[in-house]
Amino acid sequence: MAKAESVSWRKASNRWLARVAASVVIPVVLSATAPASPPPPAGPALAMMETPNHTPLADILSGRARPGFTPILENAIVFRAEPGTSVWLRLRLDIPPDGKRYWLRADRQAIDRLRLHVPGPPPGQVAETGLGKRAGPDPEWPDAFLMPLPEDSQGLLTVYLEVDGQGLLYMRPEILSADALE
């Protein structure tokens, strides 16, 4: 009787080991043979800081404006815009070298002024828009603010977005090609 119990216990143990091995080996084999899916398109890498209104980008880049940029781990941020302050977003972009024109898009909301800056040399303002304003003779969307990136933009690029607004703002900047605007 003890021998029969020992044999059935061994059989049950072997079946259990076979199931465990199959549950480990099969997913590994399937993942190794499955075609790799392309990575999702990367959005801008964001960082944020708040300064008094009219703080020049040169002061921010030199470190005279404290405390510096705080990295944002998501592709969007919610913040409260206060009177007398500007919120700066640093956007690190990877623009394809395809010769197309690219635009920065931000959802239309209670933003008085939105300014796009490049670090230079020399640092400078590229575009400005906001409530009741357009970024030049360029396309206008009813649900978004659009600002052109510099015409020669390609590869890795850092731009700065200065936001003056009111109340809670949700910023999720996107980069669109001229083809997407048509």
Task: Give keywords.
six-stranded antiparallel beta sheet; single chain; globular; alpha+beta; 182 residues; 23% helix; 3 helices
Model description:
This protein has about 180 residues and is of the alpha+beta class. It has 3 helices and 11 strands; from the N terminus they run αβαββββββββββα. It is about 25% helix and about 40% strand. A hairpin with a 5-residue loop joins strand 6 and strand 7. It is globular, with a radius of gyration of 27 Å.
At a glance:
The chain has 182 residues and is an alpha+beta fold. Helices cover 23% and strands 40% of the residues. The radius of gyration is 27 Å and the shape is globular.
What proportion strand? 35-45%
The outline comes out as: globular
> Sheet with the most strands?
6 strands, antiparallel
> Number of DSSP strands?
11
Give the number of helices: 3
Identify low-pLDDT runs. 34-41
Mean pLDDT: 79
Helical content class: 10-25%
Radius of gyration: 27 Å
Distance between the termini: 83 Å
Q: What topology, given as strand order, has the largest sheet?
A: 2-1-4-9-6-7
SSE arrangement, N to C: HEHEEEEEEEEEEH
Structural class: alpha+beta
Task: Kindly report the oligomeric state of this protein.
Answer: single chain
